[in-house]
Amino acid sequence: MLARILPYMRCPRCAAERLERCPDGLSCPACGSAFASQDGILDMIGEDPGEVITPFQRLMQSRAVVSVYESPWRHLGYFVASSRSFSREMETVLSLAGERGDGPALDLACGPGVFTRPLARRSRGIVIGLDLSRPMLRQAARRIAEDGIPNIQLIRASAFALPFADGVFSHVNCCGALHLFDRPEKALAEIARVTRAAGGFSVQTTIRPERSAGFAYILERFIRFGFFDEAELRLLIRSHGFSIERDERHRISFTFLARRLSPDGHSPV
Fold it and tell me: What range defines the domain where residue 236 resides?
């Protein structure tokens, strides 16, 4: 699989776009960096991610949460946020991603592969599941092996320094994570960089509730579980070169498909 993804990769440390295979993974001839691959996971960070890990993100990396994240954690959390089942949300996201064809796709902040596996089953193209969390990626690797899905590559990397060349993905999916990033603007800039013109961007995130009796403030202040203002989020998405084409709002859950604009700011024909 590493040989198949080489054309899409670039060094996250020096931005050189020519990586090479080596016995243990990939290497960068330009800066000498080496990136090890073990148990189906290509690690492009190493021991120091060099970024802020919020309290909520640390919670998500705990063994207890990883073991129950796919079910019941994700299902219960989504129901609380939206008052509808997670299976319906899955159908919505897969529908939004349905027109991406067989080009390479990225599932950003993939966790244990909740969306990565269904996306890969529906395509002959490569799907890359990327996350910062080793425990989540190990769980994803186990599930992928159990399901026998051949077209997934797992990568440990930062959303703020994606290890990919410009404009390589026909679709990027990011569900349940954009509001958790310490710097969502930086993540969006990287997503825009690696998405090809007219490429799709499917997202599920959270919108700040109008009334929460202070609960939303506690989540934001103490564990860094974030919320967006919907109008501001739409402007933010547009400012990073995307146009929202379809969207659904269910209580505080906001799911949408955006399309990457051409450099002149228009949707490619």
Answer: 37-260
